[in-house]
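Agenda item 2: zinc ion complex prediction
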Amino acid sequence: VPELPEVETVRRGLDAEVVGRKVISVDVTGMRTVRRYGPEALVAGLEGRVIDSTARRGKYLLLSLDGEDYLVIHLRMSGQLLLVHDPSLPLALHTHVRVGLDDGRELRFVDPRTFGEVFVSGGIGDNGLPVELGRVGVDPLVDDLTGKSLAAMLAGRRSFLKVALLDQHLIAGIGNIYGDEILFRAKVRPDRRSGTVTSREAGRIARETTTVLTEAVGAGGSTLNDARYTNLMGEWGSFQHQHAVYGREGKPCARCGRPIKRVRLGGRSSFYCEHCQV
Ligand SMILES: [Zn+2]
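Presented output:
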């Protein structure tokens, strides 16, 4: 599942490759992908528009269109955005939207599980972001996530710490992989109750959040064996080789050598070291 580093890697690819390009055709075949406003709205909102700039908020990709609207893309479980140099190349299975550009290339949205979305925003809210994003939380690489602000978010919460870190209304962009890696580096267990996190621990978690996500962006994100995530050119990320705990149940902890544990929190697996994390 793409998280902040994977989405940021795709954004950087779009920034380098499609900014300044005009959309000349839009072809929709996957109705679930455009479920929010329908296929006609996507075609009408996108055709003839110039992509001015790119942005990202949490796991949302934003492409500014002629400085007025945003094309919003959310990859969700299995969405993938590919830039194809030759539109006559065969379509990958589960290709739902094709966007033809004025340089002859084509953007393709591929999504086997169809939870992903592509739409032109219905308006911009007070925060300058598309209204559909609602109250999206602090983005650790766009905004300033401090120990103090994190401590304030966690104070009084009964939820597991890992579940709070994945709450997109608090912090936008962290998912199951990076949540585990951040907490390992911060030396705090994922099954702690959020409200018990001290200000010192919150400081470490905030710092490691920025560090881990920045390192992962530098590595082009994480591609697991299902290969559901690639960059715009179809290439894998490499941060999976640096995972210290995620997916490593029973393997030795890199710090202390004891076996990594797995626990289910909020319906999902979390990995941690019970010796190194308190
Ligand atoms: Zn350990």
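Discussion summary: The first strand starts at residue 23 and ends at 28.
Owner for follow-up: CH.
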